[in-house]
Amino acid sequence: MDQALLSYVRARLAQARPATGGRQIDAFLSSPAFSGLLPTFGARLAREFDRFLADALPPPPQPELPDLALRLPNARAGERYTQRIEVLGKAEALVFEALALPAGLILEADLATGTLSGTPPQAGAFTIVVDYRYAGHPGGRQRRALVQLLVLPDPRTMWQDRPSDRKDPYWKPDAQCDSVRGAGLATLAASKRGRAHAHAGGFRDDDFRIAHVAASGWHLAVVADGAGSARYARRGAALICEQAHARILAALGGSAAARLDASVHALAQARQDPPAGREDALHEALRTDLSHIVGNAAYYAVRAILEEVAAHPDPDAQFRDYASTALIAVGKRYPFGTLCAAYWVGDGAVAIYSRRGGVTLLGAADSGEYAGQTRFLDNAAISHAMLRQRTQVALVEDMTALVLMTDGVSDARFETEARLGRSADWHLFWEELERTAGVGVPGPWSGNEGARRLLDWLDFWSPGNHDDRTIAIVHHVDQD
After folding, report:
1. 73-93 residue pLDDT tens
2. Same domain as 373, residue 292
3. 149 part of a folded domain
4. Residue 8: domain span
5. Residue 138 CB: number of other CB atoms within 10 A?
6. Cβ-count burial 251-260 (b if 16+ within 10 Å, e if not)
7. Cα(287)–Cα(271) distance, rounded to whole angstroms?
8. 266/283 Cα distance (integer angstroms)
């Protein structure tokens, strides 16, 4: 054979099949198949030879595909989970042939999509065995990967509920609820120690008092939020509620109630037939009268705290050790509407809610320079000018409820002051109270059942909001 031809053939073989050894090339050159090419020379040789290579030689081996690293996003115990197995890095499509889940991981596996779904009941680290193949290589070998799924614990289960110290001189129950009814209104209130205090075995700093003055038909509600940084805050909140409760009961059970009734009727009449400026004048006069009732209640609360400080055995005790907010409100139902008045110092909220009219705030939350700051009831808040300024009055035709709440509720459910004044958010809030606590839902009145449902509702979960929670609600009911 021509040596030039043999050299050409050897070079082309080596170029076309680099993995082919020299002995394999020699065997091929001496084969009858190659001998059939010898008569073909000239320009056709390369074309015929390349065609022969494609038919006569086996295909080159494919490069080995790598095993893959697979992953699943974390899950959380008690929450719905639906996630597909992810491939780390770039890879071809996969065919999942088996997904073996360990005991305790109650999820459903979809082999067609590589998806796990369900609600894992418990936290832990679980290893899932995954058998797969490359989709584009049906004859390829089956591969196996171990996938770790981390199920995080439900944060609600991580909170402890340690009892507070009953031997403390200022001890009070960790939860409290109460209800009263009369004169076409029902008042419910509930207060619950926050998770942060419960976890540490601390005290409930919030407090409340409610009452119905049967002689005059008025309802009253007082809510206070003791400052978490003040060592006797729980006592300060209790004193505010006790004093406001006692003072308002005395005032609205006497002759002041009759004078208020006359003023409210006059205001309602002025709305029907208003001479210029008469309605405003009557409203301001009524506001002054009510500031002498709800505002003076705050005044006597401050005096009670000062007396407590003076009598305390610790000579270093100070007024600020009893720091607390104060939300004091009264309401009465009339044939033409409901009259509400409130004195408000600190954060939280006091508001009149109407399904038709939306929300009317009876004041404004006191915000500090930094997040979470507020102001508390003190001497500056009970000057004559401040008592009147902080007392707000509203006569509404279609009130659904008068609501007082500490920031443990308002921050969790409204988040911002802007949303606190937005009627749409109040509609959602009231729908939640109706649906989950039965507030305002017509039905038989059974002891303190409504208040207990409200107390249960206060245990709602809100990430990052674990302060004490207190709420008082005065709402319409069928006339007794």
Report:
1. 999 999 999 999 999 877 778
2. yes
3. yes
4. 3-56
5. 8
6. bbeeebbeeb
7. 16
8. 9
